[in-house]
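Exercise (ungraded).
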Amino acid sequence: MQEPRLTPTSYIVLGLLEFAGRSSPYDLKRLVAESVGNFWMLQHAQLYTEPARLAAAGYVTEEREEEGRRRKLYEITDAGREAMEEWRRAPTGSVSELRDLGLLQLFFGSAPERLAPAQIEAHREKLAEYEALRERDTGAGPRGPWLALEAGIRAERSWVGYWEWVLAETG
Amino acid sequence: MQEPRLTPTSYIVLGLLEFAGRSSPYDLKRLVAESVGNFWMLQHAQLYTEPARLAAAGYVTEEREEEGRRRKLYEITDAGREAMEEWRRAPTGSVSELRDLGLLQLFFGSAPERLAPAQIEAHREKLAEYEALRERDTGAGPRGPWLALEAGIRAERSWVGYWEWVLAETG
DNA sequence: CCTATCATGTAATCCGTTACATGATTAT
DNA sequence: ATAATCATGTAACGGATTACATGATAGG
């Protein structure tokens, strides 16, 4: 029971286990896909290795089904809950980088008149996805995901506007 | 002379070598810091290992100063230029994830009234930085960086607006 | 029944980060 | 001179992606 670093991945796993209770890696995979994965995707392999790491550190417990598929099931411990609480209490003052591939290509001289349309379409699609999600959101359930969704919507709108500006500016 | 994957890091190094000509890792470090690093930062160690990787694959040449500091100097090859051209010609249709730590904390229940102010301040600072950069930009030089800067400005404005919205929505 | 897809997991590789180290300049 | 900072690099570690693999379920 050593203490590995807690990464964003760790907090995603812990947070989901806190919310959903005992879950298998595959359960986590589905949870991620329909929630936090919208702005922070994880590979499915991470959802097998990360809980194992967390178990070694005592933040979650691991048990194995005796019958059937013999899946591994994870559950958050008090130590895990405490780690989440501590993390929540220390609001980050960091801002993330854009790290956008399309922008990188533009920076290094890709032709805007080819790049921009592709980006506009992709961002419109993503925007539509988010708006559909908001339609379905009843507003019940935790507040965080609902608030976060708005960030996604605004970001996509901003991107669409930006690439349209690029077109106008260079066209 | 094998063929490693070309990652975004690779294209940043290739692109800078293409633009600036023969450079040492430290030259690259400074170049990154004042240009592309504004939206895609690299650790300085990568600017030593990545050119070495690229050299092994024939995309750049490596030579060593005979005197003084005996620095390594890298220069892009024709193969490297071609790789850049090919990359530029294939505009990406992918959109990046937000992957924002603050948003993750909000998603998992951090108190908005503590998180939002910290984020607003951080984003305002970044925004001011970008706007200062634009002041200094004469508009000479390549178009890409100038266009990319606008993306940063818009993104920061969007974030400030978002967190203010969060405050209003939850306050 | 057969095949496609879902579900479940492990292993290998590799990139990126962090840590370590030391030689040159510049400032005081 | 000496301290501080800049410049230059290597090594170790670890997390993340990719590849590999196979068992179960459902649809045709």
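Further reading is listed at the end of the chapter. For now, observe: Chain A touches chain B through 64 residues (CB under 8 Å). DSSP finds seven helices and two strands in chain A.
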